[in-house]
Design a protein that fits this description.
By secondary structure, the protein is of the alpha+beta class. The protein has a single domain, classed as NE0471 N-terminal domain-like (2-Layer Sandwich). It contains five helices and eight strands. The strands form two sheets. It has a five-stranded mixed β-sheet with strand order 7-3-2-1-8. A three-stranded antiparallel β-sheet has the order 4-5-6. β1 (7-13) and β2 (18-23) form a beta hairpin.
Length: 163
C-alpha cells in the first residue's frame, strides 16, 4: 500500500547538500543530494526494468541547483551534473526517506561489488556527526513531529551553513 502524505515543506540546504522534506503526517526526512541522485526515478537511471538499471557512481559531490514543483504531485530536481529527467513524486520521496537505510546500504554494496571506491565521506554519517537524523517518523518519539509552515507545499532553497 502506498503512503499518501503530502509535503508541507521542502528546503534545499545547498551548502550541506541535503534536501529536507516534511510531510503532513509529521514525518521529516533529510536526504543527501547524492542519495537522491543515485536513486533518481528517471528511466535513464532506473531503466525500463531492473535488468536495465544503470549503477550511478562518482556522485559524491553532486548538488541540486534547482527544484521545480510539478503540479501538486511531484518535484523535478535539477542536479549540477546535468541530470534533470527524474520526477520525484511525493510517494517516492516518502519511500526514499522511510527506507533510506536499506536502500543506501544496498547501493553501497552494489558499488563495492563493482570495485568502486567512494571519494568522500558517507553523507548519512556526516548527518549523524552533526546530530541530525535522516528520518523522523510520526510516533517514533522524535522531536519536531509538528511541522511549522506558512505555505502548503512550499519549496525553498537555503545556503546557510550547517544545514
Amino acid at each position: 500500500m502506498e503512503h499518501r502524505s503530502l509535503p508541507t515543506e521542502i528546503a534545499l540546504h545547498q551548502q550541506s547538500r541535503v534536501l529536507e522534506i516534511a510531510f503532513d503526517d509529521g514525518a521529516r526526512f533529510r536526504l543527501p543530494c547524492e542519495y537522491l541522485r543515485v536513486y533518481s526515478p528517471s528511466a535513464e537511471v532506473r531503466g525500463h526494468s531492473p535488468d536495465t538499471a544503470k549503477l550511478q557512481v562518482k556522485k559524491e559531490a553532486v548538488n541540486i541547483t534547482d527544484l521545480q514543483q510539478i503540479g501538486h504531485y511531484a518535484v523535478k530536481i535539477i542536479f549540477d551534473d546535468g541530470h534533470k529527467s527524474g520526477l520525484y513524486d511525493w510517494n517516492y520521496l516518502y519511500k526514499l526517506g522511510r527506507a533510506w537505510q536499506p536502500l543506501w546500504f544496498d547501493y553501497l554494496q552494489k558499488i563495492k561489488d563493482v570495485g568502486y571506491q567512494r571519494s568522500a565521506p558517507d553523507p548519512f554519517e556526516t548527518l549523524a556527526a552533526r546530530g541530525e537524523q535522516p528520518a523522523q517518523l510520526p510516533g517514533d518519539g522524535s522531536t519536531g513531529s509538528a511541522v511549522p509552515s506558512t505555505n502548503q507545499n512550499a519549496v525553498s532553497a537555503s545556503t546557510e551553513g550547517g544545514q
